[in-house]
Design goal:
Elements: H1 6-28, H2 31-87, H3 93-174, H4 179-191, E1 197-201, E2 204-205, H5 214-222, E3 229-230, E4 237-239
Parallel strand pairs: 1-4
Antiparallel strand pairs: 1-2, 3-4
Helix pairs in contact: 1-3, 2-3
């Protein structure tokens, strides 16, 4: 069996590099991974909204507590004034009137506090409802994320195994290349979108898919098969295979 030439081995390396690149792209862009990223973003948005709601709810709860304390204080003050009125048998009419005025003032203040308490409780209702909805949506998304993570992990296991096999084959093939050819290939590949070597198919370069001039193709066909040539259009190493 004839040993493959260096240029034929180079094409083998290029084909393996292409397969590896395609598989890596497939792994990075799999729909489950993209969907998991979207779910995580949605969870992040829900978490942020949950924190905002918690802050708003805490502020309203604190205000409601302040109002309840104020209402209790006013109620206690009113009870004290009423007790003094009952005990003030010998007090002047002026003093009794002042105490009666204070009772009315305290009653008015209690009504104000009750109205504000009602307003706070009404403001709490939509926040509580939204917080409950956020909790439901969060639970649903967390369940979806768990399923997607499992799907991604399963796919990664398969793809990682395929990539490991391809990379091992690539390494073995690359070890058979002359050092100078391997170095030149890597330089061209780095600047040419991952393709450093291409086949000459008829009069077309498989790397840039451009047609070479007829005179250039004829010149290439007359060269020794192991002579290193490059595409005049894209600069990639151009390999003439049997039938080229």
């Amino acid at each position: 069996m004839t040993e493959p030439s260096a240029l034929e081995t180079l094409l083998e390396v290029q084909d393996l590099d292409t397969a590896i690149t395609q598989l890596e792209h497939r792994q990075a862009t799999m729909e489950e991974r993209a969907e998991l990223a979207r779910v995580r973003a949605a969870l992040g948005a829900l978490e942020a909204r949950g924190r905002s709601l918690a802050t708003e709810r805490a502020a309203l709860a604190a205000r409601l507590s302040e109002l309840e304390d104020a209402f209790d204080a006013v109620t206690g003050r009113r009870q004290n004034v009423e007790r003094r009125m009952l005990e003030a048998r010998g007090s002047s009419a002026r003093d009794l009137q002042a105490m009666d005025d204070e009772v009315h003032h305290l009653d008015a203040r209690r009504l104000e506090l009750e109205d504000e308490e009602l307003a706070v409780m009404e403001a709490q209702e939509p926040l509580e409802a939204e917080a409950a909805q956020v909790a439901v949506e969060t639970a649903q998304l967390e369940e979806a994320a768990a399923g997607l993570r499992a799907a991604v992990a399963a796919a990664d296991t398969v793809l990682d195994a395929e990539l490991a096999t391809l990379r091992m084959s690539r390494g073995l093939a690359a070890d058979r290349l002359p050092e100078d050819l391997a170095s030149r290939y890597e330089v061209i590949r780095a600047r040419s979108g991952g393709v450093g070597a291409a086949r000459l198919v008829g009069n077309r370069c498989s790397g840039c898919h451009m047609e070479l001039a007829a005179m250039e193709v004829e010149r290439l066909r007359r060269l020794p098969p192991d002579e290193l040539v490059t595409c005049e259009q894209c600069g990639r190493i151009l390999v003439r295979t049997t039938g080229s």
